[in-house]
Amino acid sequence: MQLPTPRGLLTASLFEHLRRPPHAFDAPPVPAGHPVTEDEDLQLALFTCYELHYRGFEEVDEGWEWEPSLLAARKTLERRFEAGLARAVPRPFPVAGVPMRRALAELVAADQGPRLSAFLSRQADLEQFREFVTHRSIYHLKEADPHTWAIPRLSGAPKAALVEIQADEYGGGRVGRMHSELFRATMRGLELDDSYGAYVERVPAITLAVSNAMSLFGLHRRHLGALLGHLAAFEMTSSAPNHLYSLGLRRLGGDETARRFYDEHVQADAVHEQIAAHDMCGGFVREHPWRAGEVLYGAACALTLDRLFAEHVLGRWRDAASSLRETKLMAGSR
């Protein structure tokens, strides 16, 4: 992946440093004023810092991954992101005597976000479905990786439960069944570029924020509970929407191969949600009862960010506009 085009003074400065050999630098101040989920400059800067812990960028020296001054700059970005999440996400409080599985189910049931899956199933045109897949490629092409950071931080039953979920995500060791590979087939079926990070330029801040929240929780051991709750909410809200995505893609002419990613999630996630809520999160809270609030907060973050994403996409489509960003290259070609 190449470094994307800067979206402000913050990313312009950061990328200028990253194109050089690793060195100490003073990060520019992080401007305030925008809600963090709408701050294009901040979300792209944070996404870039996190990506160095995944596959990196072709023109960025691998030594940058642990360069102290870059980590200090990332810490400043993270503080802004965490503060913004705290303002945007009502923090649930655990109730004594209520099992974690039930608390998570009640949190999911109370979510009143717009149903993007219903629109894609019945009303979306082919270009809108392609836009949706473009957004989702930012996460699905590395599906499961952010949550896998939790494995070495767990023990016993919660660890075994997470490994069971992740083994399915990675196709049980078979490349062709890895969920990221199934999603690549969906992208090819829609004539989209299936290479990793191909559409970072096109996606807006909220799409990057969805990905960044997973990396934030995954890369910090202090957020272990939030990471588990995030995964549980992810699994508990997956099966029914993926069924609708498959129906929508079939309506638009998508073949079995293109729909297989969604069909796979209908069955797999129906099982995963039970494992995630009861065995993984429930087991974790039984071992660490004082961390129950963290688990619920991680789930609430997943639900809130997904709602904000759906509101952005559907809002743009209601205005007969694209939900993606128009790059300078595209604008100049018209």
General description of the model:
This protein is an all-alpha fold. It has two domains: 9-88, no CATH class; 100-332, Heme oxygenase-like (Heme Oxygenase, Chain A, Up-down Bundle), CATH 1.20.910.10. It has helices at residues 9-18, 40-51, 68-88, 100-110, 116-122, 126-140, 145-148, 156-169, 179-189, 205-219, 224-236, 239-251, 256-287, 292-318, 328-332. Helix 2 packs across helix 3 and helix 2 (40-51) packs across helix 10. It is globular, with a radius of gyration of 19 Å. It starts with 8 loop residues before the first helix and ends with a helix.
Question: Which helices and strands occur, and which strands form pairs?
Answer:
Elements: H1 9-18, H2 40-51, H3 68-88, H4 100-110, H5 116-122, H6 126-140, H7 145-148, H8 156-169, H9 179-189, H10 205-219, H11 224-236, H12 239-251, H13 256-287, H14 292-318, H15 328-332
